[in-house]
């Protein structure tokens, strides 16, 4: 096998394929990237037996062949080479691959390509999804999946087509739920599916999709045990999680007594400041204090974000541009959950809906009607009240 390829192109593909290769694989062959050259095309493949990535790019080939090379060694060497043409030459008898570039020559010892796990056939009926829409949906739900392997179905993201030409992604960990929906432009009659994809695989999916493409094609295999994501010259194949995902529609709150529109940037900044203090407390609690006190003469609407710790102190921030409808409410959430949520919100305002301090809080991105996030509240313990802005001003004046 002899071929040449552009360093920048190969470096990009190796980083993506290497991402699914276990750094400390139990079998040497699973720590390798499969390389095959045929008909002036280079195929790169990596797998950990649960998820695999295959990439196919053009090369200038003088002879065909195949080999399995250690993923870390190959990717690291290529990454350090200068931009330009790289030449590869495989000695079939020893499976040693020689790499040459201007001023560089290295030799990597390879393994028998026949020992590499077979690459699954792309036997699936796909639906096409806009690349940007797909990436947004994944980012809006994947963080809410569970890390608890005692409930495998919650370690995945439920992906389904609900029969209404709509794609739905949902993830939950027992404390929060994230749902993202997308109206599809194509008619998907006969291609409906309802599967659970490992959340970690969807993260790999998002890295695999190429923004130079317009569409990503997704769907379960005809055998029903794999999920396939194809984008241009890259394909990701992952095993599905067996089981049934909880009926999340039943836990979405139907009633609310408090509805609040919040400036996203101000909310995000105040949460980060509150987290600096709350992260040292036992449950990492941040309190949201919604005050809506309206009389015939005055109207006071205010949101205050409170974070505190008995060891380090407390912080209290008022959020400007807050519009409150309904009754006042004080409710507490895990600070990390709120920060995860706000990392997925890209709109200028976020809408909070709640009822009582013990009821789940619902968050929506204003302007994105297809995204919904629900967080279970934390119990508000009896702890010392934080300083108010007035107290802080008095302390400053005393100094």
Using the CA coordinates, give the radius of gyration: 26 Å
Shape: elongated
By oligomeric state, this entry counts as single chain
**Number of DSSP E strands:** 26
The percent of residues in helical segments reads 10-25%
CATH class assignment of the largest domain = Alpha Beta
Biggest sheet: strands side by side, in what order? 14-11-12-13-26-25-24-18-22
The CATH topology assignment of the largest domain is: DNA Polymerase III, Chain A, domain 2
What is the architecture of the largest domain at the second tier of CATH? Roll
Spans of at least 5 consecutive residues whose pLDDT stays below 50 are 382-390, 392-396
Number of domains: 3
Strand content: 35-45%
CA-CA gap between termini: 78 Å
- pLDDT averaged residue by residue: 90
Number of helices: 7
Biggest sheet record = 9 strands, antiparallel
| SSE class | alpha+beta
Please, what is the CATH homologous superfamily of the largest domain?
DNA Polymerase III, subunit A, domain 2
Describe this entry's structure for a reader.
With 399 residues, this protein is α+β, with helices and mostly antiparallel strands. It has three domains: 2-115, Roll (DNA Polymerase III, Chain A, domain 2); 127-247, DNA Polymerase III, Chain A, domain 2 (Roll), CATH 3.10.150; 252-398, DNA Polymerase III, subunit A, domain 2 (DNA Polymerase III, Chain A, domain 2). 20% of the residues lie in helices and 42% in strands. The chain is built from seven helices and 26 strands. The strands form four sheets. The chain has a nine-stranded antiparallel β-sheet with strand order 14-11-12-13-26-25-24-18-22. The protein has an eight-stranded antiparallel β-sheet with strand order 6-2-3-4-17-16-15-10. Strand 3 and strand 4 (51-58) form a beta hairpin. Helix 1 (7-18) packs antiparallel against helix 2 (71-80) and helix 5 (264-278) runs antiparallel to helix 6. The longest helix has 15 residues, at 264-278. The chain is elongated. The termini are far apart.
